[in-house]
Amino acid sequence: MKTLVVGGGIAGLTAALRADALGHEVELIVKGALGDGCTPLAQGGIAGVYGHGDSPELHALDTMHAGGGHSDPAAVGALVDGADAALAALIAAGVAFDRTHDGEIALGLEAAHRLPRIAHAGGDATGAAISSALVARVRASGIDVREGVFAADVLLDGGRVTGIRSLDGTAHSADAVVLATGGAGRLFAHTTNPAEVTGDGIAMALRAGAAVADLEFVQFHPTVLTDGDAFLISEAVRGAGAALVDADGRRFMADEHPRAELAPRDVVARAVARVADAQGVPVRLDATALGSSALAQRFPTIDAELRRRGLDWSREPVPVTPAAHYLMGGIATDLDGRTSLPGLWAVGETARTGVHGANRLASNSLLEGAVFGARVAESLDSGVPSGLRSQSMPLCSADSGSFCDLGERSTVTRAELQRLMWEKVGLLRSHDGLSDAVAQLHRWHLPTGSTVADHEDANLLTVARAVASAALARTESLGSHHLSPAPHPAPALIGVP
């Protein structure tokens, strides 16, 4: 059986390796170089190591609570029940998780987890350690790796996906296609995601008529450095005891949520933006109580980057701001990654498994990629349909009126699109702002050029229309989808150049 995997993060690498082990002929396509993407940038760890008093059931409860009750209980159950096997597979692949003096995996605490259950590698370099180990395994396997190949569209024959067409026109045929292309962070003017994260897989699925879900739920990470290029400061720093303080040095999160700095991300991000707007200066992350040696040992990547930028966080709090981080929605799948189109699977941030609901629990994304990557590979031989219904492209209409017939259309730059999405479909939303965004997004032409940038821009606009339309359709606040009763200006991102 020929299996084609598109994407080289933890989800795609896991699916490819497991399919190879099961005897499939596997072709792995990546847009850039193998090892690019979000996985190697993940500072936080991977959830699912259960210590004294902890259990998969408690992890599931925390996941459901962080997700605003919108998570699919069956998907959450599959995630936590698969944690042991997923972590064992990563260890077998060569991932060296940090250990205590007695040899046990050291457990960290992150926001909205009631107990420490997060495994890290290299302190704050977990994603890099996982990516490096899995890439090495892929290189040593029989997997046919194609780097620098841009997947432009899926190939359809009688309603079944039979491969993908790359940008150069080459048809890559397969019995099963797995999309693991990541999220769409580059929809927004300010994001933690690298430049290549442009919603390619979701856009391909939309054009093919695959069902999508929960695209309105976009997570904004609350602690991204305001100085220079966006640089995320892991939630694990707050889990270790760092505090968020306002211009007067006062901790303010205790007024917002019983868990203060360890509240769910959507709560913390909105509070950070609100306090910064009210005071006209950035909120600061104060980790000085942890001490210089502890910061350097526990968070070596962050410590080195801050010092490279001339910041000594062991002596002074550092300015932070929210930025777009993770897409909870995506291509709708069943528990084995099957989509509404026969022959097409999706996994990782590209997919909407139902695990994350309206707001992702910290360190569940790497776990989801590992657990569901294996589940996808193990279901590829099955012809059982997903039970999901395919759909047409998102309608450019809503209760407030039609957006399809808007007269003369115009071209758009990526910067204009990102600015509109940040201002109207970002951290704080309103019905009027979302209506304006949907209308404007449909006034813009889809780019039709032949370069990678042209196709990325077309994918971004395609996904932006779907995200904004989904947000407009959800009329009540839930998790990361937060509606203000009146038009609300976007957070000023004070200090961001």
UniProtKB/TrEMBL annotation:
Gene3D superfamilies referenced in this protein's UniProt entry, alphabetically: FAD/NAD(P)-binding domain (3.50.50.60), Fumarate reductase/succinate dehydrogenase flavoprotein-like, C-terminal domain (1.20.58.100), Succinate dehydrogenase/fumarate reductase flavoprotein, catalytic domain (3.90.700.10)
Coiled coil feature spans: none
Catalytic reaction list: L-aspartate + O2 = iminosuccinate + H2O2
Subcellular location: Cytoplasm
Species classification: Bacteria, Bacillati, Actinomycetota, Actinomycetes, Micrococcales
Pathway assigned in UniProt: Cofactor biosynthesis; NAD(+) biosynthesis; iminoaspartate from L-aspartate (oxidase route): step 1/1
Main location: cytoplasm
UniProt gene name: nadB
Location of region: Disordered: 478-497
Pfam families attached to this UniProt entry: FAD_binding_2
EC id: 1.4.3.16
Biological role stated in the UniProt entry: Catalyzes the oxidation of L-aspartate to iminoaspartate, the first step in the de novo biosynthesis of NAD(+).
The protein's name: L-aspartate oxidase
Oxidoreductase among keywords: yes
Cofactors: FAD
